[in-house]
Amino acid sequence: MFLSKLDPAWLSRVAPFALYMLFMAAVDLVVQFGPAGLDVRWLYGVKVVLVALLLWTLRKHYVELTKLSLLSLKLWLSAVVIGVLVFIAWINLDAPWMLLGDQSEGFNPGSGLEACLLMATRVMGAALVVPLMEELFWRSFLMRWIQNQNFLKVEPQQVGFIALLVSSVLFAIEHTEWLAGLIAGLAYGLLYIRSGNLWMPIIAHAVTNGILGIWVIYTGNWYYW
Fold this sequence. Notes:
The chain is built from 7 helices and no strands. With 225 residues, it is an all-alpha fold.
């Protein structure tokens, strides 16, 4: 009854992100207090599948996602380039003062067939589900909501510097690599503002996460996961 009274415009953008974060917190609790030896690595796949299903269920509310066909080749290429540049920043801005806390051991998939499945799940989730979920929350909702609580009335080009900065800072705090996260938030936000098309930051974000995943697998720097 309570949920039915909430505004579906913001609920549809907040709920998938909230589910993702709550699942992360639940996994941390399982790691700390669950049975010894319990393998929680497969829970990442469960998490992204649940988020993907929720996004699909709420898809009618994402009116900005109808603009994919409006992207020219030039816009596609610019989004890809920004995604690559953010990836380069991400793997280089890792000095201790650029991190919130210590880097953990990360998501180590081990070896063998199981590891291949875990890595494929991780890359697909990070490159396909996470960018859509996060851009709908951080850029489509929160950045415009900071500008005006009636956020659907806010065209991306109307978003001011304060809204861009605040949403980018909060996006940065979500990540261990806070400085890289700040740069990413600013880059994705500016892409949305300049283009007026949410697919631009989604594509850039997907490129960043996809290349990062491949790089992590190649180098074994699991702490980035």
